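Question (not urgent): is this output format expected?
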Amino acid sequence: MSRIFFHFLAPAFIALAILVFAGIAPQFRQQVLLDFAVIYYLLILYSYYKFGRQTAPAPELTPQKRGGGISEDFREIVLREYEYVQETMAQAMNDRHTLVNYFLLATGVVMATIGAVYSTEGMFYSPYKNHLTIAICLTLSIVAWIYFLKIVRLRQAWCDSCAAMNRIKQFFLVNEGLSDGDERSPFLWKSNTIPRADRKGNLFHLEAILINFISSLAVAAVSVLLLPTDSWRMTFWIPAGFFLLFLALQFSAYTVFLKEKKAKGAAAAPQKLHVLDSTHQPRQVVLHEERLAFDGFFKIKKAVLQFEKFDGRLSEKVEQLSFMRGYATAILLYDEAAHEFIFIEQFRYPYFEEQRTKGWMIEIVAGMVDHGESPREAAQRETIEETGFACEEVKPLAEFYVSPGSSAERIAVFWGKLGKKISEGGGKKSENENIRLVRMPVAEAFQKLERGEFQDAKTIIALLHAKPLLMRV
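Got this back:
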């Protein structure tokens, strides 16, 4: 909406005002303000195309291969760069406070000057008090726009510094073999928490509102001074209209100026550069765009990217989708006394939707890893929830991606010995789970595995890893 008002509605309103006050009702004497409105809008357009936010190529970092470590000299350089960026952010905040204070001081000087013009002595020496006041108010509006533009530029600098700090953070994470959301990450903030440049309600935005409000009041005062002295009370809607027009124009300019736009003659620059470890050389992935295409119980992320091919060249831009299922855990339960595996059976809609004649699947205990949990702890919790038994001697078997071509789901599979019965089991009623325990002799389970009767991937993988350990008659 801001972009529509800035590019289309604002010039349309100005054109309408010219038609009304220059052609239909010139008796309201708003011609000076109409000329100023045209000049002011052209000034804003020039500022937009000259200083509007552009996507510039991010500074290049050259991470070393994972496992090779980072040299102390290079680490020191990057940390100094981090401190410099941090100081830049702090300076942007301090400059913003100083800027607003100077503008308020300038506004006070203007008000004092107008008071002097309208004083008894000022009116004696200056018979053109209205003309001087109009000139002073219009000058204040121009000065207010310059200060407003400085606020926008400081906001841009602050957000660019945030992005630079995040790239340095990503550099260290990649070289330590960690991801942004890894529980071992020493950083408290995540990439998706970096605020948008045009976000409303922060101090930059509030101070821009203050400047806009004073500037629009100055324009409204000019409109009042231009009206015939005997009719301005009846036509107060005219200065009110100019006040709202200038206020809305500057509000929309704040959003439009801080929205990302492509640099002229260039494609949009990549936002992130991830370097993945390789046996021979680093492999680059240039991420141009990343957003949530669906945000519900499950999430689907869409990305536009380029990846390094085996010949060293970058691929064409491609669109990729990732089903964000999260981190899961599973455990193969073994009853040592009975020499049996403990499986569970439950209804699975995707299995039913595909087969139609089937819907209940036999599989090992599994579930999602909750925030703050380790996969091992999650496996023990899920065992109690679904079977009612505790598990002992939990050991890792494997970890794998379910379908890396379309899903980010990763499953850690464990082995555990069946413990004591401590609850009813059967799954969570709040999640509409209805689970039945299936006991199966070890030999029978391996025979079913060989005949291909298991349809669940994690169950097959767990049995294949357990087979060398337990195969006996």
